[in-house]
């Protein structure tokens, strides 16, 4: 009995122990599972943590932080790692200086690509498609002139859709508009004393710009951009095009009738023996009417080239081979305006495929070998311009030389202004090889496997070799082929890739500066990005004013930013809403910067729309000083608002 009782008791103890152990194991597994979930949640939280949190971390852990957080490594170049891993905290200012120089280089490269490669390709495309100059000027060429701003906006909207880059590019569009309509117009008023504008084009551009600003403000206030709203910006641009073209044809018809009426009295005077004086006065009067007609539509004509079909936007930055003024102002019948305009000194140099040593002593050009022509096509610095340039211009040519060489290596330029339309057989053969390879490398698809076996870079290389062999065997060096214009379409695609990746790097670099310096995206957009995109307008428009074309320069100050805002918001937002599953872009404003920017831009435009007509469409220096003061007030209010917001945070 005692043995039986002990067995029963032992069995009971063992059973209880097993049950307890099982319960403990169950609780242990549940506890481990909870810990795992907490760790996973913490990991997800760390991944979603914004990169700006690095400023609150100890210096010794910042490098590890930026390496482990995806939001710190969004671009193709790890800028955050350069600052916190490559340089110690003592020499961080050196990193800022080097990256600032790199930012300036990127802005130069962006202007170069748009002016010297993208716009010429659009010119050829518009000609080959048989598009009239009226339509090409306000569509293809306007898009080419605004390409840096548009692709910067596209980069900001598509990098990540959690507002990181959206405020940057929106404020850049507002900031650039305020800068151009105040600072640039103000500077032009000081250069061109007693400047007088024509009423209809000025009123049209200012009113359309006010409408675009109002539409953008309402959109931002609602904090949402739908597909319909995005398309609305493009629709407003189409309406602007229609108004420009229709008004152009109506005004031309009215002017032709006016000229016919004025010719009749002259013929009567001529019959009385005053043929010499009358013909001169009639010719002068017709010439004056033509000039007035050109001035009446200078904002349209500033985007169209008469015989070259191309008026680039940043000539003094990129030193493009096209003249800004010569042939820029035209009538609808493609008649040149006036000899004074034709003979105006060009604002930029005219490139030649030959240097001075290639020219014979007595007239004509000496024929050069195909190999020599190939090397000249790749040469990043034109020796003829180098010899006549001053010290600062030579420094600028050296700075932009790497970008020019890379662009010459990958983009074929079809230029109607050059001999044989810039046909360079062996350079174009090389382009056939470099274009597809560059496209694969630039889009980060070089490791993508085609069919699971062939890497994309190998396929691009094979396709380039085949295309290069075809061009090499079917063309001649001394005569351009019939299909030479097809290279313009290829140049268009490659230029778009170059512009997009350059704009993408600019946005990434500005975001890095905002993080390490504690600046908001809005402040970076309305200052550095806006200044960078507007620097070309400042230089080229003031250069036009110095040459005596202040009216055209002021017209460009309103028409250019208008198109940039409509296309800079319309195209990227349409693309994002179409590709997004919700077809919606959410906007979250942490401060009131967009209200300040919209208010000051509206104040600038309203001031010009009211004051300039009251002053007889004159832009005196006193009004220019007011515009400059308005811009300084805008910067002061914006910076003060940003500082106050940062203090509250």
TrEMBL record:
<feature type="transmembrane region" description="Helical">
    <location>
        <begin position="486"/>
        <end position="503"/>
    </location>
</feature>
<dbReference type="GO" id="GO:0016020">
    <property type="term" value="C:membrane"/>
</dbReference>
<feature type="transmembrane region" description="Helical">
    <location>
        <begin position="93"/>
        <end position="114"/>
    </location>
</feature>
<dbReference type="InterPro" id="IPR004837">
    <property type="entry name" value="NaCa_Exmemb"/>
</dbReference>
<keyword id="KW-0732">Signal</keyword>
<dbReference type="GO" id="GO:0008324">
    <property type="term" value="F:monoatomic cation transmembrane transporter activity"/>
</dbReference>
<feature type="transmembrane region" description="Helical">
    <location>
        <begin position="202"/>
        <end position="221"/>
    </location>
</feature>
<protein>
    <recommendedName>
        <fullName>Sodium/calcium exchanger membrane region domain-containing protein</fullName>
    </recommendedName>
</protein>
<keyword id="KW-0406">Ion transport</keyword>
<feature type="transmembrane region" description="Helical">
    <location>
        <begin position="456"/>
        <end position="474"/>
    </location>
</feature>
<feature type="transmembrane region" description="Helical">
    <location>
        <begin position="227"/>
        <end position="251"/>
    </location>
</feature>
<dbReference type="Pfam" id="PF01699">
    <property type="entry name" value="Na_Ca_ex"/>
</dbReference>
<feature type="transmembrane region" description="Helical">
    <location>
        <begin position="594"/>
        <end position="617"/>
    </location>
</feature>
<feature type="transmembrane region" description="Helical">
    <location>
        <begin position="510"/>
        <end position="532"/>
    </location>
</feature>
<keyword id="KW-0813">Transport</keyword>
<feature type="domain" description="Sodium/calcium exchanger membrane region">
    <location>
        <begin position="100"/>
        <end position="245"/>
    </location>
</feature>
<dbReference type="InterPro" id="IPR044880">
    <property type="entry name" value="NCX_ion-bd_dom_sf"/>
</dbReference>
<keyword id="KW-1133">Transmembrane helix</keyword>
<feature type="transmembrane region" description="Helical">
    <location>
        <begin position="426"/>
        <end position="444"/>
    </location>
</feature>
<feature type="transmembrane region" description="Helical">
    <location>
        <begin position="623"/>
        <end position="643"/>
    </location>
</feature>
<dbReference type="GO" id="GO:0015297">
    <property type="term" value="F:antiporter activity"/>
</dbReference>
<keyword id="KW-0109">Calcium transport</keyword>
<keyword id="KW-0050">Antiport</keyword>
<feature type="transmembrane region" description="Helical">
    <location>
        <begin position="169"/>
        <end position="190"/>
    </location>
</feature>
<feature type="transmembrane region" description="Helical">
    <location>
        <begin position="552"/>
        <end position="573"/>
    </location>
</feature>
<dbReference type="GO" id="GO:0006874">
    <property type="term" value="P:intracellular calcium ion homeostasis"/>
</dbReference>
<feature type="domain" description="Sodium/calcium exchanger membrane region">
    <location>
        <begin position="488"/>
        <end position="639"/>
    </location>
</feature>
<dbReference type="InterPro" id="IPR051359">
    <property type="entry name" value="CaCA_antiporter"/>
</dbReference>
<dbReference type="GO" id="GO:0006816">
    <property type="term" value="P:calcium ion transport"/>
</dbReference>
<keyword id="KW-0106">Calcium</keyword>
<keyword id="KW-0812">Transmembrane</keyword>
<keyword id="KW-0472">Membrane</keyword>
<feature type="signal peptide">
    <location>
        <begin position="1"/>
        <end position="26"/>
    </location>
</feature>
